Amino acid sequence: MSTETTTAPATGDAPPRPATKTAVLLRDDLAPWQRLNVTAFLASGVTARHPDLVGLPYADADGQAYLPLLGQPVLVFEATGALLATARQRALVRGVDVAVFTADMFATGHDTANRAVVARVAGADLDLVGLAVHGARGAVDKVVKGARLHP
Q1: CA angle 120, 125, 131 (to 5 degrees)
Q2: H-helix or E-strand containing 78?
Q3: Largest CB tally within 10 Å, which of 35, 46, 52, 101?
Q4: 82: buried, middle or exposed (CB in 10 Å: 19+, 13-18, 0-12)?
Q5: 63: Cα within 13 Å, side-chain hemisphere
Q6: Under 8 Å CB-to-CB from 42, ≥6 apart: which residues?
Q7: Across-strand partners of 22?
Q8: Residue 1 — very low, low, confident or very high, per pLDDT cuts 50/70/90?
Q9: What is the pLDDT of residue 12?
């Protein structure tokens, strides 16, 4: 799926609006540090799956180089655990890419253990604390329906 396609014409010097959207949904009862940690992990999943979303490196006026970032915004929402499960199912039905973070992952210390705790549980039974979705704008809007933008 190309991120170059636009859904609305560009106006003036504004870049065209991407045809895709990225959203992170966080369970509404997480501690602040957990919200930040889960968001970082989930955004990295989208980036790994879609390296074409990464822009060019940054540089300041002194010529100091900085790492490139995602080239489109990531919208962050909060939702109940039940809505996270519903959003996961909506994403799967619509063929939207999904990254998950479960409560059990807070007790692990590395990626192999994270994958193991997810693999032990059927998808419908995952204790989701966060998920990220990336896909066509309209499909992502339907996946996150009912969630509210993170305050």
Answers
A1: 95
A2: strand 74-79
A3: 101
A4: exposed
A5: 0
A6: 24, 99, 101, 130, 131, 132
A7: 74, 134
A8: very low
A9: 62
